[in-house]
Design goal:
Blueprint (H helix, E strand, L loop, with lengths): L8 H12 L3 H14 L4 E7 L5 E6 L6 H7 L26 H7 L2 E7 L6 E7 L2 E8 L4 E7 L6 H5 L4 H18 L4 E6 L2 E6 L5 H8 L2 H5 L1 E8 L2 E8 L4 E2 L5 E5 L2 E3 L2 H11 L8 E2 L1 E6 L5 E2 L10 E2 L2 H17 L13 H9 L13 H11 L7 E6 L3 E6 L2 E6 H19 L2 E11 L2 H9 L1 H7 L2 E4 L3 E8 L4 H16 L7 H12 L12 H12 L14 E5 H7 L5
Parallel strand pairs: 1-7, 12-15
Antiparallel strand pairs: 1-2, 2-6, 3-4, 3-6, 4-5, 7-8, 9-10, 10-15, 11-14, 12-13, 16-17, 18-19, 19-20, 20-24, 21-23, 22-23
Helix pairs in contact: 1-4, 2-6, 6-7, 9-10, 13-17, 13-18, 16-17
Length: 565
């Protein structure tokens, strides 16, 4: 019996439509994109039952003539492509056409559209791909599209839709990014008669973010801007103290199109480096401009994913833009952005040495200035140690708590990396022998060159290693723990060891031997720790992203005691 058969056109069209229109959120995405490209200044999206019953999108943009309206629901109709060469130069999201045919094939659709206020508009009704009514309507400028009973003619597809609330969540996830890309447009999102988002036009991206999140969150965002030939990046990113548990708040746009790109998310996180704690993610809105012929937007039916001609270049550009924006920023967690007096005065306290010197200041100068400024430390006074874990300090307008363990981890990590860059290693008077398992010894043998880059001069034997020199931060007691930490991190590196991973391993090795919590410190030790911390390029977080210090401003303390309201 013959089993292979050619499908009829109606079935083919339904399958094709289903590939583009996966769920109600796909419909919202396509219709909102159309409204944006129609130069609308206001877009209203009205949803019922998670979009299963009704999706209505109304805009005040460029409407369609009757002929265009009829053409828009024809197969392969579009306004942005005339031929195959245009596929390499797509700059718009799509003004009608394309998706309207697919949507109308799997729903009951009504379109009311007009170009002028003094001319009749056009009404179209389409039931699952078939035009059932066309007539004149009252004049209007703009377009209203109703999509009803989605997938009623595809029971299998409708069956696999989630509950109303979950489907609406998918809609919201698509809707919010477009409001961030188009702050000059007013948006409104309604579900079952309730206004969920009401976002009037605003002048800039920070104002739009304040509408969606909060004014306080907007204050903790910083502008980013960078260009490299034909590449441009702009947007806003959160300071390290403003973060979330998921990546859902990282928004990336390429040539005005919202895209989901894991490789760019990774580049953003690499730009933050150790500023973020493990499994915490920033709020980011990044807008990339790139020549259209250097990307392919047609690798996915919904164009939510794209392909870059030179992915490495883009990732590097994104990472460096983020890193540079955060580099010189005061990042002490606080309700109000404020410069710590210590950080303000430290450059004045220390005299710079030669520009080409890797260290910012000579050790002799540092020691001299420390002695001159102890005990006030440039405006910061040490009150004492709390719970043998936190150093309590006083500045003119706040209390600052310093986590001694996190602070020392940061100090040791930067010193370790500095030693690596300067090849500043210490030769041991006599070699230190470290016993290993056979497996660990083999890993160390394989990665011996990497450990030598770190500053460990080693000879690996069958089940032991002879260590002849080490980075200067390590004492004899730290050596075994540091080497074992490095080996364990190599074991857990499923994706291989790139330069970023080398840094992470070095940072984790450096943390061995750091001052621990519940460790009593003398006044001299606390002062020395704070001075060393303030010399770090990033004194605000440990290598794992935890804050080294937090600030409690006097006005907040006064509020707690009801002295201020």
């Amino acid at each position: 019996m013959d089993r292979i058969k050619i499908l009829d056109n109606e079935t083919i069209n339904l399958i094709a439509a289903g590939e583009v229109i996966e769920r109600p959120a796909s419909v919202v995405k396509e219709l909102v994109e159309n409204s944006i490209d129609a130069k609308s200044s206001e877009i209203i999206v009205n949803i019922e039952s998670g979009g299963k019953k009704l999706i209505q999108v109304t805009d005040n943009g460029i409407g369609m003539s009757r002929n265009d309206a009829l053409m828009s629901i024809s197969k392969h109709a579009t306004s942005k492509i005339s031929g195959k060469d245009d596929l390499k130069n797509i700059r718009t999201l799509g003004f009608r056409g394309e998706a309207l045919y697919s949507i109308s094939s799997v729903s009951k659709m009504e379109i009311i559209t007009g170009e002028e206020y003094d001319k009749p508009s056009t009404f179209l009704k389409i039931d699952f791909g078939k035009i059932v009514d066309v007539h004149d309507e009252q004049p209007r400028k703009g377009t209203l599209i109703k999509v009803m009973d989605l997938f009623e003619n595809l029971p299998a597809r409708r069956k696999f839709l989630k509950g109303d609330n979950q489907e609406f969540k998918y809609i919201e996830d698509f809707f919010v990014p477009y409001t961030l890309e188009n702050e000059n447009i007013g948006f409104k999102l309604i579900h079952n008669g309730k206004i969920v988002l009401d976002l009037p036009q605003v002048k800039d991206l920070k104002d739009r973010l304040a509408q969606i999140y909060s004014p306080e969150d907007a204050l903790n965002m910083i502008q980013v801007s960078s260009s490299n030939g034909n590449l441009k990046i702009s947007g806003i990113i959160s300071k390290q103290n403003l973060n979330r548990k998921t990546r859902d708040h990282m928004f990336i746009f390429v040539n005005g199109r919202y895209v989901q790109a894991n490789e760019l998310n990774d580049a953003i996180l690499e730009g933050y480096g150790s500023l973020l704690f493990h499994d915490r993610y920033p709020i980011v809105v990044i807008k990339i401009e790139i020549p259209p012929d250097e990307i392919d937007v047609n690798i996915h039916p919904s164009k939510i994913r794209i392909k870059f001609q030179d992915e490495y270049l883009i990732k590097k550009f994104v990472k460096e833009t983020i890193s540079n924006a955060l580099k010189d920023l005061n990042l002490i967690p606080s309700e109000r952005p404020n410069v710590n007096p210590v950080l303000e005065k430290m450059p004045e306290m220390l005299e710079p040495v030669q520009k080409n010197d890797f260290f910012q200041y000579s050790q002799a100068t540092v020691q001299k200035k420390i002695e001159e400024h102890v005990p006030d430390l440039g405006g910061l006074k040490i009150i004492g140690q709390f719970a043998m874990t936190y150093i309590i300090c006083e500045s003119p307008d706040s209390l600052i708590l310093i986590d001694q363990h996190a602070a020392h981890e940061r100090i040791r990590t930067e010193k370790f990396l500095d030693d690596m860059n300067r090849k500043n290693f210490q030769k041991l008077i006599s070699p230190v022998m470290v016993d290993l398992s056979s497996q660990d010894a083999e890993i160390l043998r394989t990665y011996k060159e990497m450990f030598e880059e770190y500053g460990f001069s080693i000879d690996v034997y069958q089940r032991s290693v002879s260590v002849k020199s080490v980075p200067s931060i390590f004492s004899n007691e730290d050596i075994k723990d540091a080497i074992l930490e490095g080996i364990d991190q190599i074991k857990s590196s499923n994706k291989g060891i790139d330069e970023e991973r080398k840094f992470q391993i070095a940072a984790l090795m450096a943390c061995k031997g750091a001052i621990k919590a519940n460790e009593k410190l003398s006044d001299k030790e606390m002062k020395s720790l704070i001075i060393d911390l303030m010399k770090c390029r990033n004194p605000y977080t440990c290598p794992h992203g935890r804050p080294t210090m937090i600030k409690l401003e006097i006005k907040e303390i006064e509020k707690m005691f009801k002295r201020r309201f």
